Amino acid sequence: MRAGGPLARGAAGAGLALGLPAALLALWWVASAGSTNIFLPPLRVIVEAFGRVWLSGTFADDVVPSLWRLGASYGAALVVGVVAGYAIGRWPVARALTSPLLAYFRVLPAPVMIPVLLVAVGIGDATKLIVIGLGALWPILLNTADGVRAVDEVQLETAAAFRLPVWTRHRLTLRAATPQIFAGARQALGISIIVMVVSEMLMSTDGLGFTVTQFQRSFAIPEMWSGVLLIGALGFALAKLFELVERRALRWHRGHTGREEPS
């Protein structure tokens, strides 16, 4: 094992991940330097607005509530989706009963539920949490069900032949479905961010979506663009954090498939 090997690979991976965004930002900076269009200000002006707006009290007032809603809704969807998806994938009766319902809700966009929830629940965090959770739920649930159904029957029969405890058999099945569960969770994270911003634009008095909309309505165009950049940066950071967790959690899977990283 070479000393510093993992560190060097990590630095190389970070360089590749940041290289294209940095190049695009540099191109944007140069191309927009002489812009006089009020709706497409120079990137320099947007960066100045970014520091003025988001490196002040606005961060705590708007970014923290958004992250709290995202984390709470996503966490609840993860728990419900894995539990329900496991039951649907493991037992054919549950799958047969829920199949028509899943076929309907899987194609129903979460923002469509906003008017219904506004009438039923009212304006408040509860409505936004439910909408974000619904957006995240279906990818997790469906991928979990597919992953559980795809578990090798020989593995299940072997566990039963050795008379392993029922809980151990369930744990082995869930572990075998983990790669598919992570695939659904990764997709759900992106959907959650989108639905969070949309819900805050339509029915909130704080949060990133609300603040960007307020900037747009007051024609504070550089500030509006700075909010767009911040949302993109937060999404990128959360995706990379999820990737780090996924790589650690699925290290056994890469070894099983012969794709483990060299040490």
UniProtKB/TrEMBL annotation:
Biological-process GO terms, alphabetical: transmembrane transport
Keyword set includes Transport: yes
Major location (coarse): membrane
Keyword Metal-binding: no
Pfam families in UniProt: BPD_transp_1
UniProt GO cellular component terms: plasma membrane
Membrane topology: Multi-pass membrane protein
ABC transmembrane type-1 domain location: 78-245
InterPro entries: MetI-like, MetI-like_sf
Residues passing through the membrane, by range: 67-89, 101-123, 129-145, 181-204, 224-242
Subcellular location per the Swiss-Prot or TrEMBL entry: Cell membrane
Keyword tags: Cell membrane, Membrane, Transmembrane, Transmembrane helix, Transport
Protein name: Nitrate ABC transporter permease
Organism: Phytohabitans suffuscus
Gene: ssuC_4
